[in-house]
Design a protein that fits this description.
- This protein has 15 helices and nine strands.
- The model has no long low-confidence stretch (mean pLDDT about 95).
- Helix 11 (about 295-310) runs antiparallel to helix 13.
- A hairpin with a 4-residue loop joins strand 7 and strand 8 (about 180-185).
- The strands form two sheets. Strands 1-9-6-4-2-3 form a six-stranded parallel beta sheet, with helices on both faces.
- The chain has two domains: about 5-25 and about 205-400, Dehydroquinate synthase-like - alpha domain (Dehydroquinate synthase-like, alpha domain, Up-down Bundle); about 35-200, 3-Layer(aba) Sandwich (Rossmann fold), CATH 3.40.50.1970.
- With about 400 residues, it is an alpha/beta fold.
- It binds nicotinamide-adenine-dinucleotide and fe (ii) ion.
- Nicotinamide-adenine-dinucleotide binds next to helix 3, helix 6, strand 7, helix 7 and helix 11.
């Protein structure tokens, strides 16, 4: 099929996608925010009659003792706690299965996802698997493949990046194929989300930078895509405004609790935007850099974002210009061409200031065709991007990412 015809079909798919997504009732978690808000969580479990809970986290977080206050509060309320801290970054199918076993053995009745996107996504799939035991994680790949509701699920993000605490997505790594895949269902949106900035103070600067740029990528890709609404636009603009104001400051001073709280909110708003308006090729490529080489998700997005924006710029100049104004990089009376270019240049400068490279050290030329193929399988027509890309376009961009 020629490229022109394919593009028409992809656009038709995007049109249908936009109509369908507007009709889906995407649940939103009950939100608890502010310093010390974690203390409110045990009462939520009581309300749902959860007597035995599984905390899903990773070794970094449990090693820092970030969960200990919560565990003590839960036990004070006679809620029995089991901890599974075996989640890896870019969580694998095996991590999910390990969690399922522990959940079942301890006869848990609910799950607290405590950590960055990796523990939250792993917890979502543990919940999906325990209530849909006949389906494997791989069989849940794609959209709407989780028939039954999850046990009560609560999310406590400790990074400000993925927005997974409010999205209907989870990203899983299949180590056999060295590939990441997404699962999407309204059932995996957590019941409650706790945005407690105190839990983010310990984030080292490089993770603050990577995860913050992930949130920015969510907001930008949702905003320039073809199926956004006034609601998703407002959420994305709010996120972009905060990230441009606060990310570099909090990168330099991680103890700034107010800015940590702002970034947590930005990540949440960006999540609300992209869970409805979806993401784009930056994510499609980043997922493959994560799956093949284990590049941290936010770092991969941060590196790829300016390249994809340059590729797409003419098709979304007006939107990028508006984001430049939101980010206080200029005035709406200036030419859109200049504003959109300035927006992309500022992203490059933010990356450089925060020590994020402009190339992917792990990338091998021999893998480029495969990465492009997999990224386009995910992105076409999966993401309603402003400018469509074919295999050659994608390979050209990847060539520029070589170290
Ligand atoms: N479900 C979604 O909607 C969605 C969206 C975007 C990304 N993701 C996925 O999320 C994953 C990435 O999540 P992430 O970027 O939050 O990173 P992560 O969860 O992999 O964590 C990265 C590292 O940060 C450490 N860490 C986390 N919080 C900390 C804290 N407060 N103090 C000190 N260290 C801390 C962890 O121990 C870990 O070593 C990827 O798998 C990505 O594909 C999911
Ligand atoms: Fe992301």
């Amino acid at each position: 099929m020629n490229w022109w015809l394919k593009k028409c079909l992809y656009r038709l798919a995007h049109l249908i996608m936009g109509i369908v997504i507007k009709r889906i009732n995407v649940p939103e978690p009950e939100l608890m925010t502010g310093d010390g808000s974690i203390k409110k969580l045990p009462a939520q479990l009581k309300k749902s009659n959860v007597r035995r809970v599984l905390i899903v986290t990773d070794k970094g977080i449990s090693g820092l003792g970030l969960t200990s206050g919560l565990i003590a509060e839960l036990e004070n309320m006679d809620i029995l706690v089991t901890v599974f801290d075996g989640v890896q970054a870019n969580p694998t199918i095996q991590n999910i299965e390990d969690g399922v076993k522990i959940y079942s053995r301890a006869r848990c009745e609910g799950i607290i996802a405590f950590g960055g996107g990796s523990p939250i996504d792993c917890a979502k799939l543990i919940g999906a698997r325990v209530s849909n035991f006949e389906r494997s994680s791989a069989q849940m790949r794609g959209g709407f493949k989780i028939p039954k509701k999850l046990p009560p699920l609560y999310a406590v993000p400790t990074t400000a990046g993925t927005g997974s605490e409010c999205t209907l997505a989870a990203v899983v790594t299949d180590p056999e194929n060295r590939e990441k895949f997404s699962v999407a269902s309204p059932h995996i949106v957590p019941l409650s989300a706790v945005l407690d900035p105190e839990l983010m103070i310990s984030l080292p600067p490089h993770i603050t930078a990577h995860t913050g740029m992930d949130a920015l990528t969510h907001a930008v890709e949702a905003y320039i895509g073809k199926i956004g609404t006034s609601y998703t636009d407002a959420q994305a603009e709010k996120a972009v405004k905060i990230i441009f104001e606060d990310l570099e400051v909090v990168f330099k001073n991680g103890k700034d609790v107010q800015r940590r709280a702002n970034m947590a909110l930005a990540s949440y708003c960006a999540g609300l935007a992209f869970t409805r308006a979806l993401v784009g090729y930056v994510h499609a490529i980043a997922h493959n850099l994560g799956g093949l080489y284990g590049v941290p998700h936010g770092k991969a997005n941060a590196i790829v974002l300016p390249y994809i924006l340059e590729f797409s710029r003419e098709a979304c100049q007006v939107r990028l210009a508006r984001l430049a104004v939101v980010a206080k990089l200029g005035d709406s009376s200036e030419p859109e061409n200049e504003l959109s270019l300035r927006f992309i240049e500022k992203i490059k400068a933010m990356n450089a200031d925060m020590g994020i490279p402009s190339k992917v050290d792990e990338l091998k030329e021999a893998d480029i065709a495969l990465i492009a193929r997999r990224a386009l399988r995910e992105g076409n027509p999966g993401y309603p991007v402003p400018k469509l890309m074919n295999q050659r376009d994608c390979e050209n961009i990847l060539m520029r990412l070589l170290p």
